[in-house]
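To whoever picks this up:

The parser on our side crashed when reading a file containing two proteins. I've narrowed it down to the boundary between the first structure block and the second sequence. Both blocks are reproduced below exactly, byte for byte. First block:
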Amino acid sequence: MGQLLCLGEMKKIGLVVHIFTAALTLLVGLLGPARAALPVVLPFPCVTGCPGSLASYSTPVPTTPGNLGEVAGYFSPGGGGGGEFYDLGAVSTTLCAGYFGTYSFPAPAPYTIGVSSITGISVGETISGNGIQPGAQVASINSSAVTITMTLPAIGSASGNLTITQGNTGTLIIDTESSGGGTNQCWQKTNYRGDPLEFGAYGDGTHAAQTTTALQNWLGAYGNVGAGAPGTLPPSFGPWKAAIPGNYVTNAPLVCAQNMTIEGPNNLGGFSGTAPVTISAGSGFSGGTSIFQAYDYCRISGIAIVNAPGLTNVDDVDVLGSHVTIDGFSQMGKGNPYDLKCLIAGGNSVIGLQVKNVELDSAASDDVYIDGSCHDVRLIGDIFSGAGDSDIYFNGGEGTIADGVIEESAGIGLYLNGADRVSVSGMHIQGNGRGDATVTTTGKAGVQIRNSNTVSICGNHLEGNGGFETNSAQVYFTGTSDNINFCGNVYEPETISNVAWGPLYVYDADSGAVLTNAHFFDSPAPQADGVYSSAAAVRHLHRG
């Protein structure tokens, strides 16, 4: 039913309407006709790639900036990547002109470049040259110092000439209006969402060449900048939100730069081919040792990152900075040799790596490789499975591994080799150490400890690790270790088709293993042949 209004209420509404109309009339009168007029809206089917696109716009428009362009898609209407564009004005020597000339890196500012002139350079234009990361864009311009700030840090020394290209194929578009008798216009996107489709990426698992450039420009994007202010520093970079499902293929390394958060909607469905957003290496991948390089405070959340079958020497993610976070049901798979690697060369180190609620699967060597140069590492709530060697290789210090699953590696499940101050708790460690003919002397254990100190392994469930193989055990010791503590763990053999699978022992050790200050507060049931192997008994493991 409709709502009835009394006469008094109707009079009040009428009064408000009259007052509003009068105020609006007064405002229009004060502003004048020119200011009261709305901008001209120009519909374009696409940003680029189809007739009548924004990039191929060829109808002369008034020289006064202010026209708005409505775009339905990037390559085709409805294909994603569309939006609204504002005409900053005609390309000239003072707007969107680009640059070609000498440059330098004023130390120690890796984001700053010195140029011979800033005339005509605009925020958002792409930058290329020796030592410049692909996809880098102009973030800000300092006219007094004659420098520009880049969205991505430099990676080498300056030499030769620098090229700053007009536009960036996504948020700053140069049309071809001159072909219609006018002057090329510079269009700024006003409602950038942060999706790779907005830079021309294909999400169909093909078109690797086009998608590689688009992904690099997407990750180097400065994001939303106030229209009409191409020389100002944006309040923030990004966003990077791959919200539209797709499989994006790259043939070159991608950068997760400092303070960048790359987001997607994943839900651990990637290895069945159903991940909403996957970034994968193409068969022509070259130029680096990982799909993603993660720098300080990089965060990757809800993205699947997968190597191409048979592609060697390409990890999924290499950690190159401190406080890197990977979370939000992200996935990594088929890295060769590693899904995730943290190894810092040159005697340097990083801290604070966090991997939470992530699935890592089927690496050629180790799903996770943590070197001694990586400290304060947290692996929480993750699933590690199917590695060609160890699901987790840990050589770092101050680590926590908790509340997850380590399963079905061909070699060792968790290999603590030179680890220091590590806690392992709440893990389900199952079925590791099977089926790899190259792993014959290490025990193929669920957990192997070598040359490690101050380790706590408590409250875990270890099942069927090592199989019914020679020297198979749930836990295996080698080398010299100190202050190793076990407590409250549960151990059980695994049975397959009513046939005992193993392992032979709970604890085993090689002939040279040395343990000092070791404490065992477990009460394990015998496995296929007992609790302690003869070597473990000789090492007095059961005495604590």
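<<boundary where parser fails>>
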Amino acid sequence: MILVQLNPQQVAVVTHPYEQSLLVVAGAGSGKTTVLAHRTIAIANALPSHQSVQMLTFSNKAAKEMMLRIKRIGTTALDRILCDTYHSWGIKQLKADPEGFGLSEGFTLLSDSDTKRSIRALAKSHGLPKEIPQEDRRRLNPKAWLSTWSLARQAGFDVNNLDNYQSLTDRLAKSHNLQGDEIELAWQTLRGYEIEKQKANSVDFDDLIYLPLLRLAKDINFAPSINCSIGHVVIDEVQDTNRIQYEVVRRWVNGYCPVTAVGDDDQSIYGWRGAEISNLRRFKSHFSASELRLEQNYRSTQSIVNCATSLIRVNVDRLEKTPFSTADVGSDLTMRLFDTSRDMSEDLCDLIAQKIETGVPPKEIAVLYRTNRMAMLIEQSLGRRGIPFHVVGGMSLFDRAEIVAITSAIRLSFNPRDVYALKNLTPYIDGIGPGSGYVVQEWLESDDSFSLSNLPDEIPGLSKARRDALDIFFNDLVMEIGTSSSAEQFIQWSIDGPMQLLVREKDDQMREKRAVFLSALAVDLTLESAERFASDGRSRWQDVLLDAALRDARQSESEGGQITLSTVHRAKGLEWDYVFIPGFSEGLMPLANRSELDDDEAGFSHTEEERRLAFVGVTRARLGLVAMHADEYFFPGSKDEQTFTPSRFAEELGLFLNDFRNKPSVDVDNINFEIGRGSFASELSRLITPRSM
């Protein structure tokens, strides 16, 4: 194997004795994947022909990328390198011997939707009220109970052991502020779920790791039966393992074969879903592992590496390391301060447009944020500038069903032959189903002169009642768009009028989300209308909405060359030349504590994990990073602006501050600009409450 392109630390990792367990502490941008691929190949080449290397990682994407890297390097032992996620490894064990896990042949793996449907039905059967007050919906949410149940299983609780009743109900009560009969309701629901799975010969995703661990703990013959062909185990991102993932490996191979574990405690950002950063130290102790480090950062400038190191060293319980970069010093990292989130998002788009104009490819620019609601403050500004973007692991505002319905309505009113808009609106037209919609679409396409604005008395294949229902809906739509004085008023009509955008949604939580997204659209359209009116005094809200719909269609058709919008969590493992982090504010990053649990009970320090998350965001940048703060944010669904102070992380990073506050903004005093503060937002609670059709 050729190792000349590796640095001394990397060579030491690759060549460390293969019969010994090894902990590799790999800093950001240190070439971890390449080093891990080289070591895996070297181990596979050294093992006897009847043994393999078993690699474990967290996602199918990561497993595929690792195997592609191994193939590019090249090895004759490729068939003896196994690469699985923990879940795919688990399902292989269950399929190989279902009876050994209390299952029968042909067992079923439940999907997320199966699980949610089951848990909701069980809760109702055990007495969950059909109508729950708005203030209690988060507490009395069966899906949230299941998340707590899942975290308990990941922490090693045997949920089928009734001796754990008190511990589990205490967790449920504290996590969801349950009292009295509510605690028993949650317990009966979740125990019923476990019993229902057993009766149905089904497992969920947690079971894929949980059941092998139980068997490893109880059946002394199980581990020898599955490890006889394994000569070495390689674990990627060990800092993100939860307790049962770690215990599976320990009980499976400890004392049988060596393990190489690679991770970085400074990049542990999944404590909220059960990951235990302490597993790095546990591993070193349990496996008597040596420790080596990868500290040279090949990704980022010296300025970025130095600032990130300054930030993360504030955390007290971490493995000390000395990251360094031999790249250029680079430009200073800055923090830009604004009065409002609107000012912040406009400035962000200005900076991105300037980068693109100077030749930076859009694909080399990312906007990272702590939570998805920040994206809603940014998307429309990007759209107005014609800056192409895609949302990683999420959905653009204009891709959501309720927003598609609004934009399709404006499109259809301006173009009565738009069959695509009609198809999108069909679910919101009483009396017109998919079949009737298809008939109308065929009729429209059969003759260029046919139009919804002039329906004949008869349409072949369509009953008179359905024809009349369509005619009434279209005329009402055109009338409303023509007479509504604002986008807010039209969106209100889409909710209260014949479309009934919210009432048709039966799921309480989804209805609430739809209301928030409609609020986001109304706020943005009102702001853009105000800007255009201030500019030329002539723009109508209808033109603004139609332009938004058309530019979003162009956006969705764009291929490549897009900037990236992503939460920091989803950006882990990725990198860009330039990174922008809006919402760098106390309460947003770091996020206000998500739980009533204190740090000891949660198993991790919330503030330290938030600092690690900021560290991950900063180290995604190769050449430049800009953080941004606004004193006031208006998030869709909120009745008022929320006030924040700059994040403590700005000082810890040593960012240079650029203060743009107290600057004049667009004068909209004479524009109806009460959306979000007045009528629309104040009625959200009514809008998300189901009414009779």
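After patching the parser it read the second block fine. Confidence is low (pLDDT under 50) at residues 553-560, 595-603, 664-693. Residues 508-536 form the longest helix (29 residues).
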